[in-house]
Automatic annotation (TrEMBL), chain A:
GO terms for cellular component: mitochondrial outer membrane. Belongs to the SAM50/omp85 family. This is Bacterial surface antigen (D15) domain-containing protein. Residues 14-29 have a biased composition (Polar residues). Pfam families: Omp85. It is a multi-pass membrane protein. One of its GO terms (biological process) is mitochondrial respiratory chain complex assembly. Keywords: Membrane, Mitochondrion, Mitochondrion outer membrane, Transmembrane, Transmembrane beta strand. Residues 1-33 are annotated as: Disordered. InterPro entries: Bac_surfAg_D15, D15-like. It comes from the Eukaryota. The lineage of its organism: Eukaryota, Metazoa, Spiralia, Lophotrochozoa, Mollusca.
UniProtKB/TrEMBL annotation, chain B:
This is Metaxin. Coiled coil: none annotated. GO terms for biological process: mitochondrion organization. Residues 115-210 form the Thioredoxin-like fold domain. One of its GO terms (cellular component) is SAM complex. Residues 262-324 form the Metaxin glutathione S-transferase domain.
Length: 468, 331
């Protein structure tokens, strides 16, 4: 913020000078011949004498005081406006208030350079709720949520969810999140949930009951998340026709795992970015108690760049590797990698690549996937600047492979990995839905298909939040 | 129910609307009261139902009130089992048949053990090739959620009655040469076994505080890590209690249960008399089932378990178990 140009109001009333909610009252200036005065308030010395926060009911004083205390050290008016604005943004991001309006005024006792600041805050309702629809990969669901923002007065947030999906999936969960050290970017979360899901591509159904604790914190490079999860999984065959290889894995398992996720996200949009990159890697170690033991490494990278004529080039790479740490057991089907689908390896059915047994995808312990997209606006630009911006046409080529590595003969395995790959190309239309989901209608030509794969040449429709 | 009655062309007498109307099974009724007051038509319908092996005796429940008879079919999954088995009937007995059950030494509980042993005895009596495969998750793998089950080619058949039905369709039966009267009598005894000994075993294993705490629950949960071991055992116990409550067994005292077992053994002992097997010189399904139950009860050492002494009272039953054991389980 540079110079603030204040216009002395004819009647001396308060008015909004900025859309950010800062109200400034012009300082009393000596009446000049012209009504308009240009006043450089950058260097205007101030001494903050009083800060009033109005509207606090359940928010604790200490957290608010901590946020507004820096204002007392403001030396110039510019600094004061800056600090006030920062305090407002931070308190809103901490989830303390729905809205904060700042009013800066000269102090009542008319001391020289004396100011007082008034924060008019509006707290959230104690209990809020809602029903909304959400989309996971090729599955829609209806979510009922009751949330209690700022439940303990320091930005803690508690929510209860109930989800019913289209594919007979349903689940409920409770989530509690607490910012640490008054920093909205560092937070501790805990969740308890139960979820029932059906996985028809693999012919099983599973009930998960779990408890997780996680800590999220930023570093100069990116954001880290460390999570411990304990989950009891009850896996059953979905139908009588389920392959015996899947049925054999039925039963109860208890996974206790530690997972670290590292994310750098500089994209300007989650669904159709025009610039920026995403880097996400995660390491999971299961075996801290429980009867599931494996180590898993997964990662993805996406890079976007704008080209002339509003075109965008996007390149994505993903890969993962896991290994069982229990010599007597292989990794369960619910932990394995799968490949294929209308938003990942296009041209194949959902999870349609890799080892199958009687039409049931068995998954594998490693995979790689690469995709290149060239996006351009719709031909003839209908709805330009409005709904037309939600649509893009794209040309793509994607390749990938999924197989089990033989750790005793890594050289040959990796050679297999490269030579037995699948790839396809095609074009289609992408629709961005609600800034997180994506809908694609593509015409795809699968070029290399391996035995057992379920290819889906021609038109393919996909909807979801994860894509490559 | 509508579909079934159409499928088998059996007239339905006022189908019960809720599961609360479950009364005594006919087999139980038959064994306890020979002066049955069923009409000839009713008896013939019941016999038709029972001899159509598509149903197992324990899946049909009858209720007799005055001159009305109502019945309902339980566990439709078993009917599906049998139907699937019918489809697979034309193929010969495969070489690689596996009998899945839990680990005998560490894991299996008393009621499951009797079932597994009965199926194994039946297959051995039929002279069929099979291998026993122990899996800790056999119960969850089973299509009906109960052990044991057999895998024959692409077919999975679980529990005693469906296995008997499946094997029968492959051309092996122990009761083929029996008269209709004998066969229905055998079914009555089998039904009695399942309803008295089956429930008594569940009662002893899961409801007796000492046995459930010291033996059954630790065994049931032995293959799982903490805290799943006690959560799953507790869930199973609740399911068994619910089942026994529906049967009016959970309110019985140990003495009453022992008395029931005694009555059952008395009936079996009288039927066996001095014969080699229950129906003459060759074994039947009933022999396999009796062996499964009695051998397990005789050989399992449970704290304070009173059944062993009850069964030992009947010398011919103990000898029968030894005879079957040496004839079919000698390898």
């Amino acid at each position: 913020m540079g110079a603030v140009h204040a216009k002395a109001p004819p009647s001396g009333t308060i008015r909004d000078s900025q859309p950010t909610g800062i109200k400034t009252t012009s300082t009393p200036v000596s009446k000049k011949e012209e009504n308009d005065v240009k006043l450089n308030i950058d260097k205007l010395p101030v001494r903050v004498q009083r800060i009033v926060v109005d509207g606090l009911t359940r928010t604790k004083d200490d957290i608010v005081i901590k946020e507004i205390k820096p204002l007392l050290n403001a030396k110039t008016f510019d600094e004061l406006v800056h600090l006030s604005y920062n305090a407002k943004v931070k308190m809103e991001r901490l989830g303390l208030f729905k809205n904060v309006v700042i009013a800066i005024d000269v102090s009542k006792d008319h001391r020289e350079n004396g100011y007082e600041v008034l924060f008019e805050v509006q707290e959230f309702r104690r209990v809020d709720g809602g029903i909304h629809t959400s989309i996971t990969n090729n599955d829609g669901s209806l979510d009922f949520q009751v949330k209690m923002p700022n439940i303990l007065g320091r930005g803690e947030r508690f929510s209860l969810d109930y989800t019913v999906g289209t594919k007979r999936t349903h689940g409920y969960g409770a989530y509690f999140k607490k910012p640490l050290n008054n920093n909205p970017d560092i937070f501790f979360g805990t969740t308890a949930y139960q979820f029932y899901g059906e996985y028809p591509w693999s012919g099983y159904k599973q009930t998960d009951r779990g408890l997780a604790f996680d800590l999220t914190f930023p570093t100069i490079l990116g954001s880290h998340n460390i999570q411990w999860e304990g989950v009891w999984r009850d896996l059953r065959a979905l139908t009588r026709d389920t392959s015996f290889s899947v049925r054999e894995q039925a039963g109860h398992s208890l996974k206790s795992s530690l997972k670290h996720t590292f994310t750098i996200d500089t994209r300007d949009n989650l669904v159709l970015p025009t610039a920026g990159m995403l880097w996400r890697t995660s390491q999971e170690y299961a075996g801290l108690g429980g009867n599931v033991e494996f180590a898993k490494q997964d990662g993805m990278f996406q890079w976007n760049t704008s080209l002339p004529l509003d075109a965008i080039f996007q390149m994505s790479l993903a890969g993962g590797l896991m290994r069982t740490l229990d010599p007597n057991a292989s990794v369960s089907i619910s932990d394995r990698f799968f490949l294929g689908g209308p938003l990942t390896l296009r041209g194949f059915n959902l999870k349609g690549c890799g080892p199958h047994s009687h039409d049931n995808a068995l998954g594998a312990e490693s995979y790689w996937l690469a995709a290149a997209h060239l996006y351009s606006p719709l031909p003839f630009r209908p709805g330009k600047g409005r709904f037309g911006e939600l649509f893009k046409t794209h040309f793509f080529i994607n390749a990938g492979n999924l197989c089990n590595l033989d750790f005793n003969n890594l050289g040959a395995s990796f050679q297999d990995f490269a030579t037995n790959m699948r790839w396809s190309y095609g074009c289609g239309v992408v629709l961005c839905m609600g800034r997180i989901a994506r809908l694609e209608l593509n015409y795809v030509v699968p070029m290399r298909v391996q035995k057992g794969d379920k290819a889906n040449p021609g038109l393919q429709f996909g909807i979801g939040i994860q894509f490559l | 129910m509508q579909n079934l009655s159409y499928l088998y062309n059996i007239p339905l007498f006022q189908p019960p609307t809720s599961s609360k109307t479950i009364g005594k099974t006919w087999g139980y009724y038959h064994a306890r009261n020979h002066k049955n007051n069923l009409s000839a038509t009713q008896r013939s319908i019941i016999r038709t139902l029972l001899s159509a092996t598509i149903f197992s005796p324990s899946t049909i429940w009858f209720q007799i009130e005055k001159d009305r008879l109502s019945f309902k079919v339980l566990e439709m999954a078993l009917v599906a089992d049998a139907l699937q088995a019918t489809i697979g009937a034309s193929e010969p007995w495969p070489d690689d048949v596996l009998l899945f059950q839990q680990y005998k030494a560490e894991q299996i509980t008393l009621p499951d053990c009797t079932q597994c042993l009965a199926v194994e005895a039946f297959l051995r009596m039929c002279g069929l090739r099979f291998n026993v495969k122990c899996k800790t998750n056999a119960e969850e793998m089973s299509p009906s959620g109960k052990v044991p089950f057999i895998q024959a080619g692409p077919y999975l058949v679980s529990e005693f009655d469906p296995v008997v039905g499946f094997v029968g369709r492959k051309g092996f039966s122990l009761s083929r040469d029996m008269s209709d009267t004998d066969r229905s009598e055998m079914r009555a005894y089998m039904s009695m076994l399942e309803n008295i000994l089956g429930n008594a075993e569940l009662y002893m294993a899961w409801l007796n505080p000492e046995i459930s705490k010291e033996v059954t629950k630790p065994r049931y949960g032995c293959s799982y890590p903490w805290p799943l071991n006690w959560v799953l055992a507790w869930r199973k116990q609740r399911a068994v209690i619910a089942r026994l409550t529906a049967n009016d067994w959970s309110s019985k005292s140990v003495e009453e249960v022992t008395e029931e077992v005694h009555t059952c053994c008395l009936a079996l002992s009288e039927k066996l008399d001095k014969k080699k097997f229950f129906f003459g010189d060759s074994p039947t399904e009933l022999d396999a089932l009796v062996y499964g139950h009695l051998y397990t009860l005789l050989t399992t050492k449970l704290p304070g378990g009173p059944f062993t002494s009850v069964i030992r009272e009947f010398q011919n039953l103990a000898e029968f178990c030894k005879r079957v054991d040496s004839a079919y389980f000698s390898d």
